[in-house]
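Risk register update: the risk that structure generation would not scale has been downgraded. Supporting records follow, first protein first.
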Amino acid sequence: MRDLARDFPFGKVPFALLVTAVLSSVLVVITSRAASDRPTLVVAVSARAHAIAYKAALPAFEKKHGVDVEVQLVNYRSLETRMQNAILSGVEIPDLTELPFGTLGFFTRGPRQDIGLMDLTERVEQDQLAERLVQSRFAGWTARGRVYGLPHDVHPVMLTYRRDLMEELGIDVDKIETWDDFVEVGRKVTKDLDGDGVPDRYMMDFHMSGGESLRMLIFQRGGAIFDADGGVVFDSEVVANTIEWYIDQVYGPQRIAFEAGWGQTQMKAMTDGLILFYWTPDWRSYNFTAEGPHLKGKLAVMPVPAWEKGGRRTTTWGGTGVTIAASTKHPELAWELAKYLYFERSQLGKRFLETNIIPPNKDAWDLPEFNQPNEHFSGQKLGKLYAELAADVPPVYISPLQRVGEAKLEEAFSGSLEYYREHGKDGLKEVIRGELKDSAQYVRQALARQSRLLSDDAEE
């Protein structure tokens, strides 16, 4: 075989340099071609249902703007850390990213210049979105008075119940207006039916450790973990009263609640009539439909009982929002895409039928799809019922120490429960107050340690 390097008239070293130059040129061409094949915008989502809906909606947007948009389905468990690491190291991130509720606090822990997400405040004001949408939903996407995300949903909560069993028991749920009413009925229907000393029927599905059930009740009652400024406020009398009430319903001698779990265990509890009522944010009503086809026509929903007559009849659980990368090369186009995916009226009716999720834009609630009877829920018009409650959903504010705050609230609940198991209700309220005070103080001290990072004048 001919030795090209040896025969090259200028020697082996110049030949090697020439080969390197040629290969580099080829690589540049290949890279350029690859870059030209890249989509104009990339959207990262962690919910499969969202990915399917967006892919179906995108062709019209792409045609109108003459662009290509790619939807990527990512693992939500690793989304936070990977995205944060990419932002801090200057690595390219998707133009738009959907984040679970509460996640924004993770990205707003440091100086404003390190957040890496586009500040949407002026755009929201210019497009008058605060007036068009359920305003309380911006609470979870606002940090230090600035908006960094758009809400995908409202997630008003109702209670699903076994309509057929309640009718057999002769109970009219329309007469249940308050939690006092609910407890009164619950103490009648929670019974040991076979005489073994263990109740075989409970009124309500409450988490034994507090968790989301306790937080939903606190939010409904006007309490909070953090306030609008990110301050710790869960050591309040409202929260203390709610914990005392909750312990009574889940662990007291006249308890009415038990935990059904998730998935198959929950569906078995619902099927067997072990528990009659279940927390049901809009998204969960779709889960009940998919997981329990054999219960079609046996279920119904009702508003959450109020804490006092005429009070709020709903709360909220969960949420998703879209953020835009501060580094996007197409900020205006990304903004238009965010609004299109979330608020395009022509897409939202069909999307509701596929998910039962109420969008935050109030002008969509009169679409015919929201007024359709749902045969799984005894012919009730779920969209209409949830929409009627959506505007009254309480705001839930976030913090850079969101998970710490939630964990310390649960710790206070656990400490209070431990005392109750040993000593009963005697002195319980003072113990609850003390537990909340200690837990809240821990979070305040942790926030104080971050105060330098949270300052706009902080050094990098």
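Supporting record for the second protein:
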Amino acid sequence: MMLDSKNKGMKIAGILHFTARETIELCENGAVLVDIREEYETAARQFSVKNLIFLPNSEFNEHFNELPKDKFLIFADSVGLRSKEAVKFLLKNGFDNIGNLAGGIVDWERGGYKVITDSSEMLHGQCTCMLRTDKGKKIGFK
């Protein structure tokens, strides 16, 4: 499905970057938002859009070929950096109907767009090695 994105987004270094508002409009017209954040990042805050696929960055290289090529795909993460790298990778691997959500879920929320939240899954801690949820679930990094 080719969407008309001519009047949306900003092309920088061959990659289309969309604002949250543009992404919502595109998703309302059939585009799919692909959230590449890890499970511990999506447990507390999720994008509230109709067409959403979760594909954690840690599984991306194994499963990117399972993404629909007949849909316009917009990639998202926390701030738009890992998703931009995913778009660059996909452009080199035969995908062309894709874009990046500039600013990720951080700018999405800052713009006042709807987010599905589970406050019990919010992460707290003094450093990344000590992160845990309100439920006590540890999310330690090494």
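The chain has one domain: 10-130. On this basis the risk owner (M.S.) recommends closing the item.
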